[in-house]
Structures are given as structure tokens and as C-alpha cells.
Model the fold of this input.
Amino acid sequence: MTIAYTFGCKMRRLKSIAFIFLFAIQLWADEIYFPPIAENTWGTVPPESLGWNLTKIQQLYDFLEQQNTKAFIVLKDGKIVLEKYFGTFTQDSVWYWASAGKTITAFLVGKAQEEGFLSISDRTSKYLGTGWTKCPKEKEDKITIRHQLTMTTGLDDGVPDNHCIIDTCLIYKADAGTRWAYHNAPYTLLEKVLTKATNLPINIYTRQKLGSKAGINGFWFTIGYDNVFFSKPRDMARFGLLFLNDCIWGNDTLLKDRHYFNEMVNTSQPLNNSYGYLWWLNGKSSFMVPTLQFVFPGPLFPDAPMDMITGLGKNGQIVSVSKSLGLVVVRMGDKPNDDGEIPFKLCNQIWQKLNEVMSKVNSVKEDEQKVLSITPNPASDYIEIHILNNRLQPIVQNNETISIYNTLGECVEIEPLHLMNSSYRMNIKHLPMGLYFVQIGTYRGKFLKICR
Done:
């Protein structure tokens, strides 16, 4: 009797804790605003009510215009705080997501698994047929849908056109799961996997699972080998809002598979800590970038919230989500100045500007902000290291070293760091031309380009 009574008390206590926990989650969810599905109206919140620095907003817009931006939206807990269109682009204009659309595919694959159409542990050849690559059969059979989601198929991304989905372009490089490489072709073939598994065209399946449920409208269109998603800017903002609330739109859970959701927005494999299922992740201990096999130390976006996840596409298509700040940030436009195919630099610069706007609610700690600069960059004969954060000076002066790594991840230069007036001069005449990564101790570093 005593045992039964004690057990019953514990169960009631556990149920009470669970109820409080679920109630807290619901209260948090109730604070998030969701715009009507069938209407174009959208709630707003004045930036001044959040304590944001109004004088910095125009500077942000000026920067965005200089970077060939067409549309920019910031949501706070679902409501629009900032919305700006440039040139002839309007709220109703349609633009492409490029590789930011990979995040939609990640969601759809998870939904298809939840509905029993596929399992991400399935071999890709189950849906594409044997011989979809030029790999030996035993190597091809190692490739699963999960490898396509995580960029670990082992197929050679160094082929002349890594967008090419023809079998002759899909060549063995390494066993699946042993090599991370940003490779478009295996990703693009996920569409064929989805259509084969669901027996539905990709546009219909997208409309059913996102359009009718959250008002996220748009369409897939094939350009060359790529299947590209097009939509209005607010549709991208809706998608970001969906992920801000863990794929729950109001009271409707669009993706019930919590295990898949958690894997999608967290490190998905041991090779690139900053990559989930087709989402880029901030705040990890290291990261990899397209075309390089070097693991860089530190977070991917040092000026962004450490919990940020982001979809990034060619020419600066960006959808970023930070749960800690309750923010969704959307940027659409043409190619920004001085940035690569994937807009890492632009994304970080936008957060730099936003941090200035959010002067009273900035979540980026002082010791997480930019701590050093390298000039000149590009350089030829020498560089100067400048420490920008006074609080870090005693730390970096404490027997730290400065290291330079090449694109193979090899340390090609290391020497003690002796700061004089917060600066240090370093000779690089002996280093060949190319791209390098400069790091001080264990703190995040900077890319350096040497050219002569």
C-alpha cells in the first residue's frame, strides 16, 4: 500500500511538472504572431517600442542598397519590425531563393518520412534506380537520402559542373559519410527522390504541406540542372517564422517528427559542425565552406547570434532565424559586392548592422564581437594584426601564438605573438599566393588573401 501510494504521488508530481512545462511552451508560442494564411495583412511592431536605435536604421538600409539588395524584412516574434524594398522591387515582386531553397527541401523530406513515403536511411538507388551514378555498384549502394541531406555522398564535387545530375557527372571520390563537400547535384536529385516516393509533382507537394498550411506560396522552376524556388519576400519570411516556432504554425504542427526536426537544425554529421540537414548553423566550434576541405575554427558568423540557423543562396538570398532573439531576417537581391557564391560575408555584415540597430537588446557579448583585424588584405609582403577588443588584450598577450593555415588545413606559419600598442607586424613574403586563415590562439580568426 505504501509503495503504491508513493508511486502514485510521484506520477502525479511528474504529470504536474509535464503540465507546467507544456503550459510554458504554449505561453511562449502564444506570444508569437502568425499572419493570416489567406490574407496579405501582417501585424507590425514599431522598432522604437523595442528600444532599437532609429538613427542606425537608415545606415542599415544604405548598406543594403549598396549591396544590391531588392528586399529586406526583419520579424520580431512574428511581427514585421523592418521591411524595405529597393529600386522597382515591391512587396509583390517574385524572386528566386537559389540555395536558400535547400531548406524547403529539407522540410519536405522530413514531412515525406513522417507520412511514411520514405526513410532517410533508404538507399538513394531505391528511388533513382541502380546506375544513377558512375560509381561502382557497391559504392553507389552506400549512398542514402541522409547523405544527400548532409552533403556527405562522397561524390566528387570537383567535376567541371557540380550542378550536373547526369550519371557521368556523378563520380566516386570517397565512401559515403566519410567526406563533407558542398555539392549541388546530389541535393538536386532529392527532388526526384521526393516525387518518386510521394508520387506527386514537387510543386503540388510543396503547396499541400506549406502553401495551404502556412500561406507559404511560390513555385519550383528548373533552370539548367537546378530546381529553383521562386516566391515573394514575405513568403520567405513566413518560412523563417515557421522555423522560429519549431515548424508549428499557430496551433498546427506542420512537422510532427521532432527527432527529424532536431537533427535538421543541429550538427548532422561529424565532419562539418556547422551544417545540419541543408541548414547552415552558427555558434559551433568549427565550420567548413564550399570547395575547400579545410576545417576552420570558430563560429561561422561571429557577429550573429550563436543560435542562428540560416538558409543561404547564390547572390545573397538569405533567411536567418534566431530563437534567442525571436528574430527572422530575410534578404533577397542581386549579387552583393565582394562576396562568393554562398553569401557568408554578407550575412555576417547584415548582423553587424543589425547589432547596431538593436543597441539596447544586442545579445552578442562583448567578447564574442570582432576581436581583430588584418591589414592590408589582400596582402603581399607583410600584414599587421590589430586587436580591437581591449578586454581581450591581456588574454592574447598571455603566451598566445599567431598561426596561418593554408586551404589544406596545414599550419604553414606559427610564431609567438608580442603585441606593441595593440598591433603586431608579420612578414609573409615567403608564403605563396593564395587563400589563408589567420588565427590568434584559440580565438576566431580571419581569412587572408596573398597576391602579388
User: Anything to note?
Assistant: Residues 148 and 259 are 18 Å apart (CA to CA).
